[in-house]
Amino acid sequence: MKAIVIGAGLGGLLSAARLSRAGYQVEVFERLPIIGGRFTNIPYHGFQLTTGALHMIPHGPAGPLARLLKEVGAEIEIVRAKPAAVIRIPRKRGDTDYKFGHKDLLFEDFKVPFSLINRLKLVFYIITTRKNPPKGVSFAQWCTDHIEQDWTHRISDAFFGWALSLRSADIPAEEAFEIIENLYRYGGSGVPIGGCKGVTDALVAIIEAQGGVIHTSTQVTAITTEGAGSRKATGVIVNGTEHKADIVISDIGHVATASLLRGLSSDKELQDYTHMSESIKPSAGIKICLSSEKPLIGHGGVMLTPYAKRVNGINEVTNIDPGLAPPGRHLTMSHQCVRWEDIGNLEKEIALGLEDLQDIFANKEYEVLLIQSYSNDWPVNRSPSGADLSNRTPLSNLFVVGDGAKGKGGIEVEGVALGVQHTMKEILG
Asked: What is the pLDDT of residues 269-282, one digit of tens each?
């Protein structure tokens, strides 16, 4: 059996590794000159920066991605961050910035800033809502309806801004509670030794060891079918030549996948599929990479920043893997959600993020290494969490994986892994 994978991002590599281990002949086509998409490293002045992700796996060595990596035989060490996360808040009661100093709460103590009555309400509503998550409302609206307090919106916007690059008003409450459930189930974050590239290199090794081939700088221009009205893909077109396949897996999102289908433009089901995919707005974000001689955070977990103007969270992974920076230096990365209405003004959003870092790390010395923005065709996620379409398409043997078709309740790459797991069950049973 022959499987062709379009795109060598994390979802494509996971799929190729799993199918190659199952005995499929696998061929991967990647239009970029690099492998890994938004989940690999960029060497820069001795630092290992990233093309997208933050050198972290949301649920560490116990989550869906770690389990799938183990299943395919990937040799990668994932070290659990301790503490998993802290929350930086102003030291002075009633203050709304960091000008009078700050203190860090452990993430599990996020209830402390709530009033006593709201702490009791929080416990009650989380227990009852986990059993029967609401549908048709945002998480922000759920908070307003049940636990109206400034802290509720600050901490939820910081958490979902960091984890999903979304505001709490942009994520369905049902999806938010699936994510909360997975936090209880799998625990907090971890750092893969070697960073993102450590993971993708391990997957490449598995694919190639099984005889699979990965082509870079090679773009698929069409997905072929048996003809008009067909419900089956027959392969792909690359440089004018058709490559036949029994299974086609796309890691480029639903919109780009639909654009590659030939001979089905008048097909009603395909038209509906294309319309649904084009109605989804990708999530956007900004990452700022910092270098420092002394630690800015001092641990390998996430620091959430609910009182910042734009920055949602920061990590310093060199406290776990010093090899991600030159000797004697630390790598710190901040992430901020970019609201859909602000995508056209990224320079202003970057300036606000830089101001936040000056406030958060006042009196500390650091250098800005690189500023990266993710939007439009190179987004944080092609589909925002809670709005993902199925891994299936109108064609029975064409599947979509990756950040455009994540599993329910999966934070970033954990969602990618859940989507791949679901797809593999469809294909392999």
From this structure: 888 888 888 899 99
Buried b / exposed e along 315-346 (16+ C-beta atoms within 10 A): bbbbbbbeebbeeebbbbbbbbbbbbebbeeb
Q: Which residues pair with 3 in a beta bridge?
A: 26, 247
CA dihedral 253, 255, 257, 258 (to 10 degrees): 150
CATH number of the CATH domain containing 327: 3.90.660.50
Which residue in the block uniquely carries the two structure tokens 């270098």? 291
**DSSP-assigned letters across all residues of 190-258:** EEETTHHHHHHHHHHHHHHHTT-EEESS--EEEEEESSTT---EEEEEETTEEEE-SEEEE-SHHHHHH
Last-in-domain residue among 353, 374, 395? 374
Find the domain containing 336 and state its range: 284-374
235/295 same-domain check: no
Same domain, 273 and 300: no
Is 283 within 8 Å of 380 (Cβ atoms)?
A: yes
Place of tokens 């009033």: 115
- Average predicted confidence (pLDDT) for the chain: 93
Distance, in Å, from the CA atom of 333 to the CA atom of 369, rounded to the nearest integer, reads 10
First-to-last C-alpha distance (Å) of the chain: 15
Does 288 share its domain with 243? no
The answer to whether the beta carbons of residues 409 and 179 sit under 8 Å apart is yes
Q: Give 97-124 as a 3 state SS string.
A: CCCCCEEEEEHHHCCCCCCHHHHHHHHH
Number of domains in the chain: 2
3-state secondary structure (DSSP) of residue 79: strand
Annotate 5-32 with b (16+ C-beta within 10 A) or e (fewer).
Answer: bbbbbbbbbbbbbbbbbeebbbbbbbbb
Write the CB contacts of 271 (distance below 8 Å, at least 6 apart in sequence). 265
Model confidence over 12-71: pLDDT tens digits?
999 999 999 999 999 999 999 999 999 999 999 999 999 999 999 999 999 999 999 999
As a whole number of angstroms, the distance between CA 281 and CA 303 comes to 27
**Same-domain status, 293 and 369:** yes
Q: How far apart are CA 192 and CA 413, in angstroms?
A: 13
